[in-house]
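User: I'll paste a sequence; please echo it back and then give the predicted structure.

Assistant: Echoing your sequence first, then the prediction.
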Amino acid sequence: MMDDLSRVLNNLVDDDPSRNVASIKNAVIADFVSSDKEVTVKSTDYFNHSYAPDLILQWKKDSSERHVFLRTTNDLDYLREDVTTVSDSKPILMPLVPLPSDADSGELEQESAYSQTLVAPPSTINAFSQAGRKNAVIGLLSRAVYKGGRGVVDQGRARVASETVAQGFVAAQRAEVESTRAAITLAEDLLNPSNSGQINRLLHAVWMGSGAAATAFPGATETVSSLDAEGLQLLLDISISDDPEFWMRIGAGLSLERLCETDVSSEVESLQYLVNYNLDRFRAKSCWVENADNFNLEISERRWSVASNVLVLQTRSYRSYFSTRPLSALSLPFRQRGPFPSIGELLDRAQQAEINISEVRIEAEDGRQLDYRTSSEGSLAEDSLLRDLSSVIGRSSHVQSAIISLRDGSRYIKCDFETGTATGRTVAKLYLSEFLTSALPLLVDASRRERVAIAELPDFGIEIADIESEGGEGQGA
């Protein structure tokens, strides 16, 4: 089958060199873009220049870039000279004609691999593009090759690499050593350490998620850190498992900061599994709630999504945002002036959800404020004097804020009804489960049924300690 570049080369116009160059570049750009949705390709004013690149690949998420030098020859000696000339930028050297069959076994392969230069004709990009459309893992591999590939990679080697890594990903889910090792070895040969490490971390995460022992993983476990955002995005997008234990093991090596680096819609079921199964692991600094009806959801239903570095929870009548940053660092349109609960409404909400309130700030109709604190370890939710106080200071009085004492007695959540926000004190971060069971039932103006349903944590019959002990300690992030 003839690819786009081959058709362009067959239809070059002899008397219009600039048009020919533009057509060639556009065909190569189209191959890159179809293979990697995250890449932006800039064309320069040069073509086949000794030192100046023809194209510049850029990735916004990590601000990385790589130069591409187009070449009109496939002569191995000339290409070796080019590798020496341009290798300082660790670029992609792209001959526009097919390479000789022995190009990947001689001096060009050794020198380009050593200098972190990728030598690859357009047919290589086309091969990765076709394979990546069918398999998201190959899409991740192809991006890693464009960012940090090295050595000579022709169309045949690209196909073998794609198949090996795809098989290794499936093997890691089953804790099969040989195919997993083959994928790791290939990545180490084909990619620079940074990008091969990404493949290694992905396979390690899936391996651990399968419940296999960390010591049996065939890669370099001493250098494995947490799964990066790109690998996590892929895991969520392809929804490889609905097993609670799998997602609890994945969560053991993640933080909410890392999860918020992804971009995942509420339609992605794997995100629902990951968050719901790790509510006692993921920790946030702040939470903001707004009324936002979604009648497509059942009263007891909640859906998670990630956007703009914030974890979002949507229910039938409201939306809440969880961030690892303080409120002052967020650009959310915090509401002003309520709606405020009355004293009675606040106490009813606290009793229904069994929330321990230690302090409230009450504002009377004329603007006077009163801070009311418990004098013991008990909750103000059971304080009859506080409930009667509204009749003394006026029925138009309302609660501006409340302090929740968490069950351990040493940590607190402040709920501000003026802005609809909840935060820990000072720099404290709180588990999502604590926000759900304590802050949200106070903040949301919802039916009792919905508040109870949202605050109810899933019970999977699995102890977190059991999950963490199976494969060693969590990776952290």
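The CA atoms of residues 100 and 414 lie 69 Å apart. Residues 17-35 form the longest helix (19 residues).
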